[in-house]
Backbone:
């Protein structure tokens, strides 16, 4: 049995996970759990999911060996190229699955939260493709700093609701989407963007994202004469690209490393707590109020983390480390110049860790797979501003 | 159920109910302005128990009014310990239940939090994001410390769940009046009377309806079936508007009179 198998009946990975939502939402969680379980065992559903991801989403995404980068750092590095998937990130894998499930449950509308806007754009895309109504909740601060993505969502036919409560970022967008879900649960599916939320979301989203790891393990075996990389590294905010990647390698000898942002390191610096429907590691103050995360990357700006990551950390199967803004900016430039791949700020955290630890925690000569979870276009403007370039 | 196993909250509400009266339970957010005075005021106005909100950073069951109150209270430095010690300093003629979110309880630790509540004279707890299937540990700690943990039942709950919620609820059973979060509504949802009617099939505990009960007319209407109401956002709105303890008293007196007149 896989270490990343089914959670318990109450949705637990070890002591993490569960279903901490108002009673009003419990029937919907049960229905979703049942619907997902049936769909995922139904060949017709999984064929349709795979067909769309292939014909429309650009899968399988390639694994690219980084020759110049590898030579410079004395290790052999590969990228799993989720940046080449439709909409520019791995988010499409999850939203196609959930949009198909929305239709299968007879619902006509999807709502979603978004921070940087990547999950919002992906959800709006899947809704357009499958003819569903779509409303995206986005914090006021993020609406201002991600104007382009707001426009993309509207172009795709979604409505964007500006959330003005709390810290006006991702955390509050999730709160508002959950409140709206309570009021509209009969007709509406809440398309959560990461491996978080109440059961079955952390499990379901990981299953929709495991296509990353399932592809990558076959691809790297092809390159490494049947072997797997010594290290598999992915960035972790909520943790969906990491969970999807780890799922493919968790039962191999590969060492799994999740890289959190310094200012949003729920596993590294948080303690177990409850927010957004789950028990997991959480940044909180000394009485249990949830803290605001800070990261240069809006996509990792989240004080919690998916419960399965807390579990993998607790059993020592994956290790979690942090990367800071400066080394992330450096990594973004190094990868761009050496390989012609401009990473999003989120996976640049994973690249930064590999650069920092090459020849240290990662011995020279090791093979390393990094999940390139998204492309850097969305961040170009803010990076230009930080680097003092005029764009 | 043997009478001696009843907690203070349930005993008080059952007595009131059995004497043929409708129950009025106001909610107010602790830490907001002169909330302790407002608390005394709503008791003077005729509340049968009061739900005191310990503000949380991420109140997912609350609409804009209680969100604003929570945020203001937190910005003013409200903490669970500070609020509880204020409660400890006063004595109240009716039972006090706290309403908060589970992370506040979880962070303190179940036993420690339950003991603290008991020490401060709190006899009930309402934790909207701690649904029945996750509530086991807290229910044990609460019961051991004489704190009645109130379960919330929703219009979407199945008959089987309503039965289990009613069985496990102590103090009273909280019927959520509509599919939505707390807030002021123009009219009473049909689901408000319906949840009360459905719950009463399973329990003789007091059944109170809250969420979307904003006016005296709505309170009277739902109390034709329910044993009473919880009034939160309408009261907090008045406090946020600067109504102060007198405003709180006046509003709750209107509800009291309306409920007593039927």
Residues:
């Amino acid at each position: 049995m896989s270490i990343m198998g089914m959670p318990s009946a109450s949705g637990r990975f070890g002591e993490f996970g569960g279903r901490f939502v108002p009673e009003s939402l419990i029937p919907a969680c049960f229905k979703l759990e049942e619907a997902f379980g049936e769909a995922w065992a139904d060949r017709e559903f999984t064929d349709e999911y795979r067909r769309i991801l292939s014909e429309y989403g650009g899968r399988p995404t390639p694994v690219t060996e980084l020759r110049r980068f590898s030579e410079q750092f004395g290790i052999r590095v590969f990228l799993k190229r989720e940046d080449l998937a439709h909409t520019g990130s791995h988010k499409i894998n999850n939203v196609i699955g959930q949009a198909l499930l929305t239709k299968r449950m007879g619902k006509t509308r999807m709502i979603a939260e978004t921070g940087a806007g990547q999950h919002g754009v992906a959800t709006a895309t899947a809704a357009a493709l499958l003819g569903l109504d779509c409303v995206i909740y986005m914090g006021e601060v993020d609406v201002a700093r991600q104007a382009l993505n707001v426009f993309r969502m509207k172009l795709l036919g979604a409505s964007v609701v500006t959330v003005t409560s709390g810290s006006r970022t991702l955390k509050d967008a999730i709160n508002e989407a959950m409140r709206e879900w309570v009021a509209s649960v009969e007709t509406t599916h809440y398309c959560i963007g990461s491996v978080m939320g109440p059961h079955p979301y952390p499990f379901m989203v990981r299953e929709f994202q495991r296509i990353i790891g399932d592809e990558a393990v076959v691809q790297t075996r092809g390159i490494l004469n049947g072997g797997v990389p010594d290290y598999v590294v992915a960035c972790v905010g909520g943790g969906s690209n990491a969970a999807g990647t780890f799922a493919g390698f968790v039962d191999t000898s590969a060492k799994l490393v999740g890289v959190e942002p310094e200012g949003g390191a729920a596993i590294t610096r948080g303690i177990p707590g409850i927010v957004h429907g789950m028990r997991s590691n959480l940044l909180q103050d000394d009485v249990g109020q949830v803290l605001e995360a800070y990261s240069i990357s809006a996509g990792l700006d989240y004080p919690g983390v998916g419960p399965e990551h807390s579990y993998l950390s607790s059993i020592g199967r994956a290790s979690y480390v942090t990367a800071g803004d400066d080394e992330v900016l450096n990594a973004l430039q190094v990868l761009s110049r050496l390989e012609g791949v401009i990473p999003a700020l989120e996976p640049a955290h994973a690249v930064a860790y590999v650069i920092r630890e090459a020849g240290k925690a990662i011995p020279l000569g090791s093979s390393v797979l990094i999940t390139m979870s998204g492309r850097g276009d969305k961040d170009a403007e803010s990076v230009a501003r930080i680097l003092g370039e005029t764009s | 159920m043997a009478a001696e196993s009843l907690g203070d909250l349930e005993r008080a509400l059952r007595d009131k109910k059995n004497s043929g009266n409708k129950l009025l339970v106001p909610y107010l957010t602790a830490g907001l302005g002169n909330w302790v005075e407002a608390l005394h005021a709503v008791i003077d106005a005729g509340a049968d128990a009061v739900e005191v909100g310990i503000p949380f950073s991420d109140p997912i069951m609350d609409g804009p009014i209680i969100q604003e109150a929570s945020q203001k209270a937190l910005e003013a430095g409200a903490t669970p310990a500070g609020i509880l010690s204020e409660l400890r300093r006063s004595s109240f003629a009716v039972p006090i239940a706290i309403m908060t979110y589970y992370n506040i309880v979880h962070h303190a630790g179940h036993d420690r939090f339950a003991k603290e509540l008991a020490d401060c004279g709190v006899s009930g707890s309402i934790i909207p994001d701690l649904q029945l299937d996750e509530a086991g540990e807290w229910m044990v700690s609460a019961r051991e410390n004489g704190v009645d943990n109130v379960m919330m039942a929703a219009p979407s709950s199945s008959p089987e769940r309503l039965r289990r919620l009613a069985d496990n609820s102590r103090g009273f059973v909280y019927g959520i009046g509509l599919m939505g979060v707390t807030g002021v509504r123009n009219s009473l949802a049909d689901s408000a009377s319906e949840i009360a009617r459905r719950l009463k099939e399973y329990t003789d505990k007091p059944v109170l309806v809250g969420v979307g009960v904003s006016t005296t007319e709505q309170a009277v209407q739902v109390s034709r079936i329910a044993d009473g109401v919880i009034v939160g956002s309408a009261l907090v709105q008045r406090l946020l508007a600067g109504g102060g303890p007198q405003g709180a008293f006046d509003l709750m007196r209107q509800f009291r009179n309306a409920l007593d007149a039927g």
Summary: Residues 58-89+210-386 of chain A form a domain with the Rossmann fold fold (CATH 3.40.50.1100). Chain A has two domains: 12-52+91-201, 58-89+210-386. Chain A is about 45% helix and 20% strand. Chain A has a mean pLDDT of 96.
